[in-house]
Amino acid sequence: MRVCNILLALFFAALAGCAAAAPSSVRHTSPFPSAIALLPFENQSLDLRAPEILRELLDTYLSASRFNIIDVKEAEEKLHGLGISEGGQLNAVTPQKLGSLLEADALLYGEIETFNNANIGVYASRTVKVTLRLVDAKTGATLWETGKSKVNSQLGLSKAAAKDILLKGYANKAVENIADNPLYPESEDVARQLVRELGKARRDW
Description:
Helix content: 40-55%
Distance between the termini: 50 Å
Number of helices: 6
């Protein structure tokens, strides 16, 4: 009898362990946000154009993916009324106040962590890294968050290869500076990645 009790205890302990280890599929109780405001990006890089480039690309791709994005220009005008012109100033205002001002159900906060074009001849690297966060405008709770990056790099192991990398790097940088679109291919790639991830979150909501 004692052996049976021990075996039963072990059996139920094993069941409990399995239940604890099983992943839980959490579903949101409220529907996916209808109206979303894409806020100015916080910029940790040294490139002043980076926030505008990434925000414009995300606005384009989000709209194309049928997200209901509040008009960016109208949102900017309203934010200017609060004295906000860049992403770094957004922390001074609560999500609730921003949501009420912009008539949004949710807010998309973006942060540019890296936006860098380095070229030292033997090595060239073009890097864009961005995090995006969807916040409930009523509660201030983070509903979704992800980070994406794109790196294009080259290494020249010979003198000729290093020279080629250096010259091509300077040429590409000059063209992008003239067009005022630095690191545009990498920015496009990151924007597409972010929108795909948010689209997946919406499907699984």
